[in-house]
Amino acid sequence: MTTREVLAAARLRGVVRVPGDKSASHRALMLSALARGTSHIEGLSRGEDVAATTQIMAQLGASVDTRDGVVVVEGPRRGLRTSSEVLECANSGTTMRLLAGIVAGIPGEHRLVGDASLSRRPMDRVARPLRLMGAQVTGRGDAMTAPLTVLGARPLRAISYDVPIASAQVKSAILFAGLVGDGATSVREDPRTRSTTEDMMRRCGIHLTSVETATGREVVVSPGRPTSQHWRVPGDPSQAAFFAVLGAIHRDAVIEIEPIDTAPERIGFVGVLERMGADIAWHDGSLHVASSSLVGTEILAAEIPSVDEVPVLTVAAAAATGVSTFRNVGELRVKESDRFSGSIALATALGCKTWSDGDDFFVLGLGTAAAFASFSLDVELDHRMVMAAAIAASAGRGGVIGGADSVSSSYPAFFDDLASLQ
Ligand code: S3P
């Protein structure tokens, strides 16, 4: 475990280019590996999560190469096949869950493994629908944690499924399995989660319809093989959220974040920061943010459906005046670490009064990041908790973060980009 001391920054100025969107990167690799012919991917995330997907697509028979910074993927003519080796998903829930959907449709046995964090995360949420479709999926205990064994079948049974939790990963696993269904597969979700899979499948020529209901949507996918594409991966909004909060809470900051994906399900954090009074604005797809005085607000899970931005919004809440309420965010407990407790622990370490009630938690802000306590916190195997803590340290009075190297799962250059603003 690498421990890193992050010093308080006196002044922050500059432009940040966040990495390619992690969600789009995984899907670009997977769709390209499933496709016939040669695909190109520009701007692929360089994090270890996406590297795990790259390695696995190669194990399943795709050829993956990098030429002049562009990743070139060639899907095997007769489609992906089983690997005799385990499929190492490392720290990446997206890899394991989407992959389960893909290998469910590849006859034969597949063994999916992960690190200590991923091996604690529930996989029953994907196992259940995939079993209904005809794959055999086994894992450990009721939550069906990894290692997972998937016995694939083809064709799979087309199903009609209501996803019981807000999860783009579960929706996507079913949509990938639906590509080899014996008819049209329908997935309903409420609230709406990121539509990355739907948008990218459609672009690859897959017949897919999506109808929005009041707060949810129904997606119907028909079987088919994706066509090869030239992908340009947009900047990752979830990574932009760290610098947006930093710019808003630091007492002397002007930060520009280069263009990111602006899908509505991904940029809920901007609306939250605006509501808190942040000086934040869009200019040609870039986000400009400057020092602000924030006020507490109520944040609903549905406005940031994957809750990925909650840890760093907790830091914003800690710097705000008054109470911020995070409602219905119980899903945080089953992320790379228990981010429900972790977010509360971070705000507490900064000196805030915090409390919780069921799936809600509350932070009484200190009114300014200048009042943050210098802290020391251990965060193992959770990139987003490390980055949230680093933002707090940089805007406040510094901090020591154990487990800091886990940023490499999604953002290996995070500390360099943070330092470049000083
Ligand atoms: C992701 C979905 C989200 C998110 C994760 C990426 C995706 O998880 O937390 O970082 O790419 O589909 P859930 O599906 O659990 O909401």
Protein architecture, described:
This protein has 422 residues and is α/β, with parallel strands linked by helices. The protein folds into 2 domains: 3-20 and 235-420, UDP-n-acetylglucosamine1-carboxyvinyl-transferase, Chain; 22-232, UDP-n-acetylglucosamine1-carboxyvinyl-transferase, Chain, CATH 3.65.10. Helix content is 30%, strand content 26%. It has helices at residues 22-34, 48-59, 93-103, 124-132, 168-178, 196-203, 237-249, 268-275, 310-319, 339-349, 383-395, 414-420; strands at residues 3-6, 12-16, 37-42, 63-67, 70-75, 87-88, 108-113, 136-140, 145-152, 160-162, 185-189, 208-212, 217-221, 230-232, 253-257, 279-283, 286-290, 298-300, 323-327, 353-357, 360-364, 375-378, 399-402. The strands form 6 sheets. Strands 2-15-17-16 form a 4-stranded mixed beta sheet. The chain has a 4-stranded mixed beta sheet with strand order 4-5-3-14, with helices on one face. Strands 6-7-9-8 form a 4-stranded mixed beta sheet. Strand 8 (136-140) and strand 9 (145-152) form a beta hairpin. Helix 1 (22-34) runs parallel beside helix 6 (196-203) and helix 7 (237-249) runs parallel beside helix 11 (383-395). The protein is globular, with a radius of gyration of 21 Å. The model has no long low-confidence stretch (mean pLDDT 98). It binds shikimate-3-phosphate.
